[in-house]
């Protein structure tokens, strides 16, 4: 008897989930990475804005070499990509990124890219 | 050679990032300094001497450090007031605190004190 009344006294009031609030709750296990299409579009936009690529048709399958870009040009593009997605690409990754496809896959696998 | 190349690209990217951070709101200066970095790196593209490349990379890193630690960009807020757009954090540019040594009794070293009191020239063979 006593324990029952005590239980009712100290019962924790849990917030009730209202309809429409479910979208505000994010599970940490959920995948909130950017979609491939969005990443591709944004990267292609960044590359086509670069002076040496102006007027060229850039496709996701192009390598930087095919776009006639040297290592300094690709570094320029990667800095612009960093700014676009709010990230910093480590030096060892910079060496591995040699094409538009590599750039897209790096951004896709970076959870902090926004 | 590949490692050196990666260092050069790394220093170039670091310099560009720093310039973007420091001159973020000053588009004219940002365009100028970015162009200058690009031009200078391209001018020295044919350098093959590892020692010279290393010197130039160190110079670029020093420029990045200088811009980050010793430059403040003031923005005109009103006709008479200037302010900064971002918070500056200068870490490590303060002189190191001198640690005071505990004072103890003055001890006279054994043998020659080096003052020439023993009659010989300090440092000569006669001076112990």
Automatic annotation (TrEMBL), chain A:
Top-rank taxon: Eukaryota
GO terms for cellular component: mitochondrion
MF terms in GO: acyl binding; acyl carrier activity
Domain Carrier: 37-111
Places the protein is found: Mitochondrion
Pathway: Lipid metabolism; fatty acid biosynthesis
Name of this protein: Acyl carrier protein
UniProtKB/TrEMBL annotation, chain B:
Cellular localization per UniProt: Mitochondrion matrix
Keyword match Mitochondrion: yes
Keyword Chaperone applies: yes
Gene Ontology terms for molecular function: protein folding chaperone
GO cellular component annotations of the record: mitochondrial matrix
Coiled coil: none
Biological processes, Gene Ontology terms: mitochondrial respiratory chain complex III assembly
Keywords recorded for this protein, A-Z: Chaperone, Mitochondrion
Predominant location category: mitochondrion
Protein name: LYR motif-containing protein 7
Native source organism of the sequence: Heterostelium pallidum (strain ATCC 26659 / Pp 5 / PN500)
Encoding gene (name): lyrm7
């Amino acid at each position: 008897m006593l324990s029952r009344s005590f239980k009712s006294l100290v019962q924790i009031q849990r917030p009730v989930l209202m309809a429409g609030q479910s979208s505000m709750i994010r599970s940490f296990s959920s995948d909130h990475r950017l979609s491939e299409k969005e990443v591709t579009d944004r990267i292609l936009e960044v590359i086509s804005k670069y002076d040496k690529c102006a007027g060229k048709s850039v496709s996701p399958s192009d390598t930087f070499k095919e776009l006639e870009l040297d290592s300094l040009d690709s570094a320029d593009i990667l800095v612009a990509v960093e700014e676009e997605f709010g990230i910093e690409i480590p030096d060892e990754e910079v060496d591995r990124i040699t094409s538009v496809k590599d750039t897209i896959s790096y951004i896709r696998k970076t959870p902090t890219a926004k | 050679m590949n490692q050196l190349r990666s260092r050069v690209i790394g220093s170039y990217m670091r310099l560009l990032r720093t310039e973007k951070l420091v001159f973020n709101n000053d588009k004219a200066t940002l365009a100028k300094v970015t162009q200058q970095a690009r031009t200078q790196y391209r001018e020295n593209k044919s350098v093959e001497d590892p020692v010279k490349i290393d010197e130039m990379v160190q110079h670029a890193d020093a420029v990045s450090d200088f811009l980050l630690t010793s430059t403040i960009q003031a923005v005109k807020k009103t006709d008479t007031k200037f302010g900064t757009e971002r918070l500056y954090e200068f870490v490590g540019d303060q002189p190191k605190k001198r640690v005071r040594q505990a004072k103890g009794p003055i001890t006279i070293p054994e043998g020659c004190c080096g003052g020439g009191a023993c009659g010989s020239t300090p440092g000569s063979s006669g001076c112990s």
